[in-house]
Amino acid sequence: MDKKDLFDQITEVTRNTEDLLNKLHETQSAMVEIMEENAELQIENQHLRERLKQATAAENEGTKNTKYGLSKSLQNLEKLYASGYHVCNEFYGKHRQDEEECAFCLTVIYGDR
Amino acid sequence: MEDLKNLTNQAVEKQPEIVKRFNEMIDSQHLSHAYLLTGAGGIGKKDVAQWVAMRLFCIDLQGSMPCGECEECTRIISGQHPDVVEIAPDGQSIKVEQVRFLKAEFSKSGVEGARKVFIIEQANKMTTSAANSLLKFIEEPSGEVTAFLLAENRSLMLPTIVSRTEIIELKPLPKDRLIKELTEQNIAETDARILTRLTNDTSEIQTLVDNNWILDAHKALEKWFITATTGDITAFVDVQTRVMALAKDRFYQEKILDLMMLYAMDLLELKFDQETITYEANRRQLQELADQTNVRQLLAVADVLLPLKHQLSQNLNFQSVVEKATIKICNIFKMRGR
Amino acid sequence: MKFTIARNTFIKKLNAVQRAISSKTTIPILTGLKIEAEEDRLILTGSNTDISIETTISTNDEEAHLNIESTGAVVLTARFFGDIVKKLPDNTMLLEVKDGFQTTITSGASEFKINGLDANNFPHLPEVDSQTTITLKADVFSEMINETVIAVSNQESRPILTGIHFTIEGNKLSAVATDSHRLSQRVINLPEPIKMPEDIIIPGKSLLELSRMLDDEIDTITLQISENQALFTFDETLFYSRLLEGLYPDTSRLIPKESSTEMEFEAPELLASIERASLLSHAGRNNVVKLTINAANKQAIISGDSPEVGNVEEEVVTKDIVGEDLEISFNPDYLKDALRSFGHTSIKMAFTSALRPFTLVPTEDQENFIQLITPVRTF
């Protein structure tokens, strides 16, 4: 292989690698997006189940406060937060990067009332 | 300075109605936050976007026209205005860092004033997630922001983007104007006429003009067509010796089939005494041929050529498709050569 | 344009302006330095659009030996123009721009000719004529930046949190930053009340750059706000920063109003303990340390446990502990940053529960400076 071919080839390989990297980036963000959507759906699903329960068990006397004095809906939020998603107004439904704690979310769940 | 001035005029000349519409929107302060400008390449999408930017920033408006000469206008035209942010795909796509830059720019105030304009070329080359991440900014921008997304076709864009922008379809350029523009670029008028029959897209035209491809193709096909229509079977050899060298890839192959078709159409035009034909340079020869053949034969030629493009799209081999067609045409004109 | 100037003075000013100039930019002219000669002064400007720095050398400045023969303006590529100026042989230099922006730089026996650019294409910095001009002590403001910038987010996905939120109302200037994991808030009192309240978000990066320029020689700094830029003025320098647009989240509700456990200590003491404990937490997979408070015994224990590496436990020297017993875990790096921002002072730390953010304030001044940290959930 002469030098020019070699050079062309390396350029080609570099370009291919760049393309691949870009595709990886895309796939990564697509995945995060799906996870976030999934989280939102989970929240929604939870809410719907909750409504269903309330509807079927009408005798149920309102929302009982349970663990840490949290209401059912706050418990849901807590569960969702624990599974790695924001529940605060600012970033609702977004994936919590590296599972880092979020002061906004914690205030929503445990804050003063 | 001279060519800068040209650029200003291009939006006005290429898309006078659109320019007028934007003028009205600006005057009545009804400019939206986001526009999707669609239309083929070379149709003046970026010209229109830059024109609007100039209209908004120009410090020496001539009536309702930007002057094209002040510091604001010249900086916009040369892409140096910090508050007119332009992004075009870097290679195959709009890259992750480019989108990051865009988002950062969307979230910051202007450098020189409150107003900002964004121009995103080939916006369809953004990845889905990149486009989605820009939605928030397009939907509820902070400050006086106008974003232009440019794309050839609205169907290339995500529905979420389409639904959040005002769509403006640019009209194809008038043929005469395109021909005039091409002759100004030292392309012979006869060639310009052929080119505009093939495409409206100036970037495609440029590709066809490069390395004299259109000139060579015109010559080769002229020889091939004349030979074939005298019923001379050596036209079959022309396919291998003359045409194949020009058919480098699918793009050129399709254009060759279009060029062939244009001969058949010219013959029909002449048979029915129409004035304008594509191959003006061959008018005499074609007129003679049209006179000597009957309509049935001419329609038969069209019938042979029409399905070729479809066959090509079904991955049939270009050379064998054209060779087969050549034999059929020779057969139609068999009697004439003798 | 033609002028002569003492090279030392010119280099000093050039260095200041060069902070704003980046070689990576989408607008080519921004790799350049703008030099503008007026009748009685020379103005140097650099900009990366995010920040712009403009500095003036007056003909009255004796050290500068500035002599302007003719006025004008040019933009020169900053990197190699800077290198050239620094390597010139003589104490003075002459700069002359001819037609077509060709620039000649002469010093001693050396002469450079370089191509310049049209200064008209350089960004035009806004004229700031705001009615509100706030004058601050440079060292206090610099401190304010450094205390709050630690909590600024570096994630572009939340652009608004990459800035420090300034609000000015009455005679109070307050600065808040949060990356949602922690928060810093500092308030300073202004000598006189401001007529119009202001509310702006300035990128943390801009402010860090600004604070680096505020050395001991600078006494006061003024702040003016235009519709799109914040302008800081000190000495002969103008420092512009673009603003972040949008609404900053309401941070006041993040700060708990009550507490169930309080602990008092000297900042350096706890800092030293945390630094030791974080040696192990850094080596482990999750960067967490635990604080165990036994209120009855007035005892506070910092511990770190990394299964792969080992564990550490140490009792913290405290001044006082009141309230309920508590076990709380957190990222030691956040606490280190917060403690460092306090310097040598006595701190009060207040907790509400193991799940809610806790706060640190100086015992002496509990109103004007607060650091807040979110605990890590360990179940």
From TrEMBL, chain B:
Q: What is its EC number?
A: 2.7.7.7
Record's Pfam families? DNA_pol3_delta2
Keywords, ordered alphabetically:
Nucleotidyltransferase, Transferase
Question: Which superkingdom is the protein from?
Answer: Bacteria
Q: What class of enzyme is it?
A: transferase
Q: Name one GO molecular function term.
A: DNA-directed DNA polymerase activity
Any one of the GO BP annotations? DNA-templated DNA replication
Quote the protein name from its UniProt record. Answer: DNA polymerase III subunit delta
Q: Which gene encodes it?
A: holB
UniProtKB/TrEMBL annotation, chain C:
Subcellular localization: Cytoplasm
Pfam families membership: DNA_pol3_beta, DNA_pol3_beta_2, DNA_pol3_beta_3
Its cellular-component GO annotations read: cytoplasm; DNA polymerase III complex
Gene3D superfamilies, per this entry?
Answer: 3.70.10.10, DNA Polymerase III, subunit A, domain 2 (3.10.150.10)
Q: Which UniProt keywords apply?
A: Cytoplasm, DNA replication, DNA-binding, DNA-directed DNA polymerase, Nucleotidyltransferase, Transferase
Which NCBIfam families does the entry mention? dnan
Provide the DNA polymerase III beta sliding clamp C-terminal domain boundaries: 253-376
Which InterPro entries does the protein's record reference? DNA_clamp_sf (IPR046938), DNA_polIII_beta (IPR001001), DNA_polIII_beta_C (IPR022635), DNA_polIII_beta_cen (IPR022637), DNA_polIII_beta_N (IPR022634)
Q: What is this protein called?
A: Beta sliding clamp
GO MF entry, a single one: DNA-directed DNA polymerase activity
Q: How does it assemble?
A: Forms a ring-shaped head-to-tail homodimer around DNA.
Q: Which family does it belong to?
A: Belongs to the beta sliding clamp family.
SUPFAM superfamilies, per the entry: DNA clamp
Q: Which residues form the DNA polymerase III beta sliding clamp central domain?
A: 136-250
Q: Which domain of life is it from?
A: Bacteria
Q: What taxonomic classification does the UniProt entry list for its organism? A: Bacteria, Bacillati, Bacillota, Bacilli, Lactobacillales
Every copy of the DNA polymerase III beta sliding clamp N-terminal domain together lies at 1-126
What is the gene called? Answer: dnaN
Q: Name one GO biological process term.
A: DNA strand elongation involved in DNA replication
Question: What is the protein's known function?
Answer: Confers DNA tethering and processivity to DNA polymerases and other proteins. Acts as a clamp, forming a ring around DNA (a reaction catalyzed by the clamp-loading complex) which diffuses in an ATP-independent manner freely and bidirectionally along dsDNA. Initially characterized for its ability to contact the catalytic subunit of DNA polymerase III (Pol III), a complex, multichain enzyme responsible for most of the replicative synthesis in bacteria; Pol III exhibits 3'-5' exonuclease proofreading activity.
Keyword Repressor (UniProt): no
KW Transferase (keyword) present: yes
